[in-house]
C-alpha cells in the first residue's frame, strides 16, 4: 500500500512528495508523471518565486541547486500607460528586500526548479514514474484503489492531484469548478537586450492587459505579455521581426536592441477555482485547485503555499497516528488554503478588470490609488510583505523557512 | 461473579452507544464532535507520554514499546491512532457491538489493536497492567466513578500514567456541553450527557490519590468556533483533561 500517491510531476507535485517524505521518511510516497522521461527539460519558461517559496525550497534542500540560476528581483516598477507612450509615468516602485539579503522574489528557470526537486526526490527515495497517470480511482473506505494508465491497480491511503489547471483527476473526483475566460492570452517568451536590467522588473498596465518584464541571468528578461486572445495568437505566429517591432513599442529602448531568444507561446487566461480542495482520500494542489490571472505573478506561489499547508497537514496527522486520508484530516488543509486562494483569485480578477481598459475616469481613479500607495511607505511595505508571502499570520512552517 | 461484584457498567449508557455504533467512523455522523476533538487530545497525550517516558514527539512511532489500555474505546477512534504511534493497545468496551465495529475497522486499516468486550473490573481482576491507562470521555458514562477510577488505577504500573478526560459539572458546562452541543448546535444526539453524571475535577483527584496516584497535569479544552477547532486552555469549567502518575517503586 502506498501512503501518498501524487499525480503530476511538476514543481507542485514534486514538492508535495519531497516535503512529506523529508518530514516522515517512513511513509511511502510515489509520483506519477504523464510525460516521458526528459520532457521537463524542454520547458524554457521562467517563474517568479516569492521569498516565502524560496524559503520552502531551501528547507526542502532544493534551493542550493537553484540559486546559481536564480536572478533576484531588486526593484519593481509599475506604470499605467498606453502602447507607444513616449514617457511612462511611474506610479509605483518597490525596492529592496523583505529581510536583509533576501529579495522579495527571484526569477528562476522552470528547468532549474524542477531539476533540483527531482534530485531531492531521488536522494530521498521518492520514485517518479514516467508516462504514467491514474485513469480511474475508487474510494474503498480504508484505501483508494487507483487504476493506473498501464491497467494495473494500486492502493493508496491518499491520492494527491497536481495535474494542472485542466485536472482530469479533479473531474473524475466529481469536484466542480467556478471558471471564466478573460478573452486574453499571455504571451510568454525570453528576450535578450543590449544593456543590463539591474534586477528591475517592470509591469505596464496597458489597455489590452498587463505587460511585464522580469529579470533573468545575464542581459535577458522573461516576458509576460497580455493581449486579446486573437491578437496574441497572431503575434506568436508572426515572424520575429514583426514580433520584435511590436515588442519594442511596449518595452521601449531603454535597454537597447531587443532579440527574442526563446519559443513564443500564448496561453489563454482564465480564472478557475475548484469548489472543494479535498474529498475522502483525495486532495487537489497547485493549478488543479486554482488557475488565476498572472497579473500579480502569484499563480505558482499559490501552488507552493498549497504544498506547505498540505504537507504539514499530512505529516502532523501522521504524527498523531491519524488516518492521513480521512476527510476530517484533509479539511484542515482546505480551511487553510481555500480562503487565501479565493482572495487571490478575486484580487487578480479585480486588478485585471480595473487595469485592462482605457476608460478615462477609471484611469484617473486607479492612478490616484497607485499614487497613494506610492506615498505611504507603511502601506507599501505591507504590499511587499504580502507579495513576498511573508506577511501572513498562521503561515505553514515551510513558508517561514522552518522544517515541518 | 458478575451479580455479586460491584459494577461500573450503566446498562442504559451501553445500549445508547451500541445503537449508534455503525456511525463511529463517519467524520460527518453522530460522532463528528469526537473526530474534531481527537487531534487535540491525541497531541496532548502523545506529548505528555513522550516527556514522561523520554521520547521524541516528532518520531514516527513515539509510543513504541508502551502497553496502553483504552478503556471505553467505543469504535476505536483513540485506540487506532495510539496503536499507529507505536503502542501495544488493548481496547476495552462493554459493548460487543462497539468491539465488532472497532475490530473490523482496525483490520481494514491494517492497524493491530487487541479489542476486547470486557469491563475494567474484569481486566483488573485478571491482573492486567499497563504503562498508560486512558479514560477518555468515559467517567461521565459509568455507574460508580470512584470505584471505576480505583479499579483503573490498580492497572497502572509503577512509573505509569493515567489520563482522564471528561466534562465538568458546572452551569457553564450545562449551558455549553449539553444545551449548546446537544440542543442548539445538534453536534451530539440529545441525551448523550446528563448533567448529574458530569464529574468535577476533585471527584477524580480524590479517588486517584486514595489509590496512590499523583495528579500532576491538568488542562481545560475549549472549542474556538471561529477557528472551528479545539484548543488547550486554562479554563477547566467545561471540557478538561488530567494526568496522574503512579510513583516508581522505591
UniProtKB/TrEMBL annotation, chain A:
GO MF terms, alphabetically ordered: FAD binding; monooxygenase activity; oxidoreductase activity, acting on paired donors, with incorporation or reduction of molecular oxygen
Residues annotated as signal peptide: none
Q: Does the keyword Oxidoreductase apply?
A: yes
Name all FAD-binding domain ranges. Answer: 2-316
Pfam families associated with the record: FAD_binding_3
What's a single GO CC term here? ubiquinone biosynthesis complex
What EC number(s) does its UniProt record assign? 1.14.13.-
Needed cofactors, names only, are:
FAD
Q: What is the name listed in the Swiss-Prot or TrEMBL entry for this protein? A: 2-octaprenyl-6-methoxyphenol hydroxylase
The cross-references to InterPro entries, in alphabetical order and at most eight, read: FAD-bd, FAD/NAD-bd_sf, UbiH/COQ6, UbiH/COQ6_monooxygenase
Q: Which UniProt keywords apply?
A: FAD, Flavoprotein, Monooxygenase, Oxidoreductase
Question: In Gene Ontology terms, what is a biological process of this protein?
Answer: ubiquinone biosynthetic process
UniProtKB/TrEMBL annotation, chain B:
EC number(s) of the enzyme?
2.1.1.222, 2.1.1.64
| Superkingdom to which the source organism belongs | Bacteria
Please write the reaction equations for the catalytic activity of this protein.
Answer: a 3-demethylubiquinol + S-adenosyl-L-methionine = a ubiquinol + S-adenosyl-L-homocysteine + H(+); a 3-(all-trans-polyprenyl)benzene-1,2-diol + S-adenosyl-L-methionine = a 2-methoxy-6-(all-trans-polyprenyl)phenol + S-adenosyl-L-homocysteine + H(+)
GO biological process terms, semicolon-separated: methylation
Q: Does the keyword Methyltransferase apply?
A: yes
Give a GO molecular function annotation for the protein: polyprenyldihydroxybenzoate methyltransferase activity
Q: For the Methyltransferase type domain, which residue ranges apply?
A: 69-163
Q: Which InterPro entries match?
A: Methyltransf_11, SAM-dependent_MTases_sf, UbiG_MeTrfase
Specify whether Cell inner membrane is a keyword of the entry: no
| Family (UniProt) | Belongs to the methyltransferase superfamily. UbiG/COQ3 family.
Q: What does this protein do?
A: O-methyltransferase that catalyzes the 2 O-methylation steps in the ubiquinone biosynthetic pathway.
Q: Under what name is this protein listed? A: Ubiquinone biosynthesis O-methyltransferase
Q: Which organism is it from?
A: Gellertiella hungarica
Q: What is the lineage of its organism?
A: Bacteria, Pseudomonadati, Pseudomonadota, Alphaproteobacteria, Hyphomicrobiales
Amino acid at each position: 500500500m502506498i501512503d501518498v500517491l501524487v499525480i503530476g510531476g511538476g514543481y507542485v507535485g514534486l514538492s508535495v512528495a519531497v516535503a512529506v517524505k523529508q518530514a516522515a521518511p517512513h511513509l511511502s510516497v510515489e509520483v506519477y508523471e504523464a510525460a516521458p522521461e526528459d520532457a521537463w527539460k524542454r520547458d524554457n519558461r521562467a517563474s517568479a518565486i516569492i521569498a516565502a517559496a524560496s524559503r520552502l525550497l531551501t528547507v526542502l534542500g532544493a534551493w542550493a541547486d537553484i540559486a546559481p540560476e536564480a536572478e533576484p528581483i531588486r526593484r519593481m516598477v509599475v506604470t499605467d500607460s498606453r502602447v507607444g507612450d513616449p514617457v511612462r509615468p511611474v506610479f509605483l516602485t518597490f525596492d529592496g528586500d523583505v529581510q536583509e539579503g533576501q529579495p522579495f522574489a527571484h526569477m528562476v528557470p522552470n528547468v532549474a526548479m524542477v531539476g533540483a526537486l527531482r534530485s531531492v526526490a531521488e536522494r530521498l527515495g521518492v520514485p517518479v514514474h514516467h508516462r504514467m497517470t491514474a485513469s480511474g480511482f475508487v474510494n474503498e473506505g480504508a484505501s483508494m484503489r487507483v487504476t493506473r494508465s498501464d491497467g494495473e491497480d494500486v492502493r493508496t491511503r491518499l491520492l494527491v492531484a497536481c495535474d494542472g489547471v485542466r485536472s482530469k483527476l479533479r473531474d473524475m473526483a466529481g469536484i466542480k469548478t467556478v471558471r471564466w475566460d478573460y478573452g486574453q492570452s499571455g504571451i510568454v517568451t525570453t528576450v535578450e537586450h543590449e544593456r543590463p536590467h539591474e534586477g528591475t522588473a517592470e509591469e505596464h498596465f496597458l489597455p489590452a492587459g498587463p505587460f511585464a518584464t522580469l529579470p533573468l541571468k545575464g542581459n535577458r528578461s522573461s516576458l509576460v505579455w497580455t493581449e486579446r486572445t486573437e491578437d496574441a495568437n497572431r503575434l506568436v505566429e508572426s515572424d520575429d521581426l514583426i514580433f520584435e517591432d511590436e515588442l519594442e513599442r511596449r518595452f521601449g529602448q531603454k535597454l537597447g536592441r531587443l532579440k527574442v531568444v526563446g519559443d513564443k507561446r500564448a496561453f489563454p487566461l482564465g480564472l478557475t477555482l475548484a469548489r472543494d480542495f479535498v474529498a475522502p482520500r483525495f486532495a487537489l494542489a497547485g493549478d488543479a485547485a486554482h488557475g488565476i490571472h498572472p497579473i500579480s505573478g502569484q499563480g505558482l506561489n499559490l501552488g507552493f503555499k498549497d504544498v506547505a499547508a498540505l504537507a504539514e497537514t499530512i505529516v502532523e496527522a501522521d504524527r498523531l497516528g491519524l488516518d492521513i486520508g480521512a476527510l476530517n484530516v484533509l479539511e484542515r488543509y482546505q480551511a487553510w488554503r481555500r480562503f487565501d486562494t479565493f482572495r487571490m483569485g478575486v484580487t487578480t480578477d479585480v486588478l485585471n478588470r480595473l487595469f485592462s481598459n482605457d476608460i478615462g475616469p477609471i484611469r484617473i481613479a486607479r492612478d490616484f490609488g497607485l499614487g497613494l500607495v506610492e506615498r505611504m511607505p507603511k502601506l507599501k511595505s505591507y504590499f511587499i510583505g504580502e507579495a513576498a508571502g511573508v506577511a501572513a499570520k498562521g503561515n505553514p512552517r515551510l513558508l517561514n523557512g522552518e522544517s515541518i | 461473579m458478575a451479580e455479586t461484584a460491584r459494577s461500573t457498567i450503566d446498562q442504559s449508557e451501553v445500549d445508547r452507544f451500541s445503537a449508534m455504533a455503525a456511525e463511529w467512523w463517519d467524520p460527518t455522523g453522530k460522532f463528528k464532535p469526537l473526530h474534531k476533538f481527537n487531534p487535540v487530545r491525541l497531541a496532548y497525550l502523545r506529548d505528555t507520554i513522550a516527556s514522561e517516558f523520554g521520547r521524541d514527539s516528532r518520531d514516527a512511532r513515539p509510543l513504541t514499546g508502551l502497553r496502553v489500555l483504552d478503556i471505553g474505546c467505543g469504535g476505536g477512534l483513540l485506540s487506532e491512532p495510539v496503536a499507529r504511534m507505536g503502542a501495544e493497545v488493548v481496547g476495552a468496551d462493554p459493548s460487543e457491538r462497539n468491539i465488532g465495529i472497532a475490530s473490523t475497522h482496525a483490520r481494514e486499516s491494517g492497524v493491530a489493536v487487541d479489542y476486547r468486550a470486557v469491563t475494567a473490573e474484569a481486566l483488573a481482576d485478571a491482573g492486567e497492567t499497563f504503562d498508560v491507562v486512558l479514560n477518555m470521555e468515559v467517567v461521565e458514562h459509568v455507574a460508580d466513578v470512584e470505584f471505576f477510577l480505583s479499579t483503573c488505577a490498580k492497572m497502572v504500573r509503577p512509573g505509569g500514567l493515567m489520563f482522564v478526560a471528561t466534562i465538568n459539572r458546572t452551569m457553564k458546562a450545562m449551558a455549553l456541553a449539553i444545551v449548546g452541543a446537544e440542543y442548539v448546535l445538534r453536534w451530539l444526539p440529545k441525551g448523550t450527557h446528563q448533567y448529574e453524571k458530569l464529574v468535577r475535577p476533585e471527584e477524580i483527584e480524590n479517588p486517584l490519590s486514595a489509590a496512590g496516584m499523583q495528579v500532576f497535569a491538568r488542562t481545560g479544552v475549549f472549542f474556538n468556533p471561529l477557528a472551528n477547532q479545539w484548543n488547550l486552555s486554562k479554563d477547566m469549567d467545561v471540557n478538561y483533561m488530567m494526568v496522574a502518575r503512579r510513583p516508581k517503586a522505591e
